Automatic annotation (TrEMBL):
Species lineage: Eukaryota, Fungi, Dikarya, Ascomycota, Pezizomycotina
Stretches assigned to the Shikimate dehydrogenase substrate binding N-terminal domain: 536-616
UniProt region (Disordered), positions on chain: 1-57, 858-879
Molecular function (Gene Ontology), one example: 3-phosphoshikimate 1-carboxyvinyltransferase activity
GO term, biological process aspect, one: chorismate biosynthetic process
Polar residues biased stretches: 10-26
The name this protein goes by in its record: Uncharacterized protein
Length: 879
């Protein structure tokens, strides 16, 4: 296999720098073949580059010089040895953020007519290196913007490294890694021990010329939760779904600096989940907790969702290790260990990740501490801590090179809270550019908890502030930790009860003594928060699984709330609920999703665009001018009873539908300008379905509805939306490419429009059971509409009946390329968003998914234990 040339000793030596300094072109070398227009330099760039004498490599910059701030649309380089999955990741990224893939190896082949290995054999190593450097330079120059550039180690002779280092001054250059077993499995030809040598040798080189690193975890288990039990086989692409999600999340993090409110708008926006709390920076919310988990506990089989349960952030605690006295760099295995653990956390949680290195105990650990913190910024965590007792220069360096990571200035000291030391340190942290401050102090007595409030009040009086995390540690400090408002450190339930707790406290006096359940309990026991009443309101809400799903979540989180069914034939009775000072909010079911709009005082921009509401929350405080406060303020007043001044309407159906589309759509069906979606039905759910399609970037949407006039109304509504200026900023990529178009198909007998591709996303938004006098619709798709050669995703949005004629049809009559999801997949997804709006907290996802499956029965009250068990088994650590 020619492509394994990187793995030869020859390349090693040249990487070390034994490359001749001046070399003429070999006269035998064939003229480069004419490059293809899409991925090549214009002729002038090639010829000027070819005639340019080799320049002296740019001196290698210190890591600290990287600012990690990039212009929008800057190209991203993926670099690493073969077999780490760079090309696959590049394709995923190119689909999600509409960029082209440029492979440096392929460029070489096209320009010279030879593979790199053959070229080396024929013209010698020096010519080969020279040509590679030349082509790498051209590629980086030509594809400075809008590309994902794949670069194998073969391009990295010493001068190539310098080129990449220079590029990394203004572009993300990501070192891609993967476990050695998987790389070996992919390359096949190499002995494992040889490969180990190569990795050990090359990793520090790749690290030197990249400003980020991503550990690509090999997925062995498919995300089968999206495939209903009776589908015979799991499509292979599903195994890659998690890798895709994790990488896109990473990419979004590094390419999207936060806006003024601290929220992030990623380049992969149409691919990202749209849960409401993601829009509100965690450090601005009240009474949030971060679970602290030592790196050593993040073993491969650890259940991250379990550890994170009920928390608002996940903190990885890294202990600096002894470093070789002569080395200035973190040992490679250590760096890799940290990167892989962080990748595992990122892949299994939706909450922000904090990277915390425990401050150096003495001067001899200082270098190790610095190197661990520097390494952390390469992994792009949401937050990283920096010890405020370190040298100011170091803190400044970290704030300058933090990129999109927010820095928490951290300090643990035994000084009294009245001591001016703390205020000075707070001011220093602000001056040096920290985004958040975290002060902790070991408490001896309960009185220390009162003193801390005085300090917090002093901070509050300042004109300029950044969020403050501030609490006493140790057993005596627990009370102050409970009432700290921002990211209180907690430990997992299992650790608090476990045998290692005492040793941990001894080893690290900063260890928290609190669990999230205790912290939650105190808020209610102290009357800071109140038990609330939630409902689902609908004409036939009796069958709804929402009460079971939400109540299970409240119970698991230790919230004393209650969710009940409110079945009614008229919305007039809503007043009764709203007069109750404990009213927390209601889910709105059919047939009220449109009608309820007349009763709300304000709506989210999404609900307004959709023209349907499925979630109502009470507003207890209005702005001075009588308007409704911002989302952040609305979240701050959750879980607190009192008279209600207004009702706010939102829609979580589209959020759930978007999540399900993301889950089920294969890379082969990634949304392109020609992608076509079909929506069946035109009620409230149909509107949410059209909106979800627009949000994932579908530009051709076809509606089929029994009553043609209603379908036309829906089309008119969305036609107005996409042509109005309000769609800019609301729909991702709205300003790019053609404007979305909508069509109505009148009858099942009609042919699929000839100018449109067959649909690859089908959303059935009609009831699956009889409603009133109407029999169940028993809808199936006309076969002439089902010709997508790559299949697609079909989602039956209702859940009362599961094995519907449509689901049976897809399973029995189509190829395995179609993935089916149903209402039991959707209900929890839209419910997570509802839980966030009702409580201001992230939803306990697994609990809610499991409860929905366990409580489901068909119209005759029968459950299906086999189906439930298969689907329960399939719920993996899916954030
Ligand atoms: O449509 C639905 C389903 C639902 O009504 C239920 O529990 O069945 C709950 C609603 O929030 C959602 O919009």
């Amino acid at each position: 296999m020619a492509s394994v040339a990187v793995a030869t000793k020859r390349t090693f030596s040249t990487m070390m720098g034994d490359m001749p300094q001046t070399q003429a072109w070999s006269p035998q070398e064939p003229r480069p073949t004419r490059p293809r227009a899409s991925t090549h330099a214009p002729d002038s760039a090639i010829s000027s580059a070819m005639s340019t004498p080799r320049t002296t490599p740019t001196p290698m910059p210190l890591l600290a010089e990287w600012r990690r701030i990039f212009e929008p649309n800057s190209s991203v380089v993926l670099v690493g040895i073969r077999g780490t999955g760079k090309s696959t990741l590049a394709i995923m990224a190119s689909m999600a953020c509409q960029r082209r893939v440029v492979d440096v190896e392929q460029q070489f082949q096209e320009a010279t007519g030879f593979s790199t290995a053959k070229y080396r054999k024929q013209f010698g190593a020096s010519n080969h290196n020279l040509r590679q450097e030349e082509l790498l330079r051209i590629t980086l120059q030509t594809h400075d913007k809008g590309a994902i550039i794949v670069c194998n180690g073969g391009s990295l002779e010493k001068s190539g490294q310098a080129l990449l280092q220079e590029f990394a001054q203004s572009h993300p250059v990501i070192h891609i890694m993967r476990d050695i077993g998987s790389v070996h499995g992919y390359l096949k030809v190499l002995q494992l021990s040889k490969l180990q040598d190569i990795v050990a040798f090359t990793a520090p080189i790749f690290r030197r010329c990249s400003n980020y690193e991503f550990y690509n975890i090999s997925e062995t288990k498919a995300a089968v939760s999206v495939v209903p039990a009776n589908q015979p086989s799991v499509p292979a692409f599903l195994t890659l779904k998690r890798a895709e999600r994790t990488f896109l999340k990473f990419l979004s993090m590094i390419t999207s600096p936060t806006d003024e409110q601290g929220a992030r708008r990623g380049v992969t926006a149409n691919f990202e989940p749209a849960f409401p709390l993601s829009e509100v920076p965690v450090e601005l919310r009240k009474y949030t907790c971060a679970v602290q988990v030592p790196l050593a506990d993040l073993t491969e089989d650890v259940d991250i969702e379990e550890l994170e349960f009920g928390c608002d952030a996940f903190e990885v605690v890294v202990e600096p290790v002894e470093m070789d006295a002569h080395s200035q760099h973190l040992p490679s295995e250590r760096a890799e260990h940290i990167s892989s653990a962080m990748s595992r956390v990122r892949r299994s949680t939706i909450v922000p990740v904090i990277y915390h290195v425990t401050p150096a105990k003495d001067q001899s650990h200082a270098v190790s501490y610095f190197e661990h913190v520097r390494h952390g910024l390469r992994i792009a965590p949401d937050f990283a801590t920096v010890d405020l007792s370190s040298d100011e220069e170091f803190v400044r360096e970290m704030t300058a090179s933090r990129g999109s990571t927010k820095l928490i200035g951290h300090l643990h000291a035994p000084l009294d809270w009245y001591d001016p030391f703390w205020m000075e340190k707070y001011d220093t942290a602000m001056r040096l550019g920290c985004n958040v401050v975290r002060f902790t102090r070991p408490a001896q007595f309960q009185d220390d908890n009162a003193a801390i409030q005085t300090f917090r009040n002093k901070i509050r009086e300042k004109a300029d502030t950044i969020p403050l995390i501030c609490f006493n540690t140790g057993r005596a400090g627990r009370r102050s930790a409970c009432f700290n408002q921002v990211l209180t450190s907690v430990i997992p339930e299992s650790v608090r009860e476990g045998p290692t707790f005492a040793a941990r406290v001894q080893g690290n006096p900063e260890t928290s003594w609190l669990t999230v359940k205790e912290a939650t309990h105190i808020l209610y026991a102290s009357f800071t928060y109140d038990p609330m009443r939630f409902y689902i309101i609908g004409a036939s809400a009796g069958y709804s699984l929402s009460p079971a799903m939400h109540n299970a979540a409240y119970k698991a989180c230790g919230m004393p709330h209650n969710f009940t069914t409110y079945q009614t034939s008229t919305l007039n009775t809503l007043q009764e609920l709203v007069q109750d000072t404990d009213f927390g909010g209601t889910a709105v079911s059919q047939p009220f999703k449109l009608e309820v709009i007349s009763l709300v005082h304000s709506m989210s921009r999404h609900a307004r665009a959709i023209g349907a509401v499925n979630t109502l929350i009470p507003v207890r405080h209005l702005n001075k001018d009588g308007s409704i406060p911002t989302d952040l303020e609305l979240f701050q007043e959750r879980n607190q009873a009192g008279p209600i001044k207004a009702l706010y309407g939102d829609n979580t159906d589209w959020i759930g539908i978007k999540s399900c589309i993301r889950r089920g759509l294969s890379p082969a069906n990634a949304v392109r300008p020609t992608t076509c979606g079909l929506v069946v039905g035109s009620g409230g759910m149909g509107r949410a379905a059209v909106y979800a399609m627009l949000q994932v970037g579908v530009k051709n949407i076809v509606i089929f509805n029994r009553t043609y006039a209603n379908a036309e109304k829906l089309v008119a509504h969305f036609g107005r939306l996409v042509s109005s200026s309000s769609s800019t900023g609301l729909l991702p990529l709205a300003s790019q490419g053609p404007r979305p178009t909508f069509r109505v198909i009148e009858s099942r007998e009609d042919a699929w429009p000839t100018d449109l591709r067959p649909p690859t996303i089908v959303l059935s938004c009609i009831p699956t059971h009889p409603v009133g006098d109407s029999p169940e619709p028993s809808f199936t798709l006309p076969t002439q509409w089902m010709h997508s050669p790559t299949g697609g995703v079909v989602i039956e949005l209702a859940y009362r009946t599961l094995n519907t004629p449509l689901m049976k049809q897809i399973r029995e009559e189509t190829s395995g390329a179609w993935v089916c999801l149903d209402g039991l997949d959707l209900l929890p997804e839209q419910g997570f968003a509802q839980f966030e709006m009702f409580t201001g907290k992230r939803a306990p996802r697994r609990i809610m998914r499991e409860e929905v499956l366990r409580s489901w029965t068909d119209e005759r009250g029968q459950s299906d234990p086999a189906m439930v068990q298969t689907r329960l088994d399939a719920i993996d650590q899916e954030p």
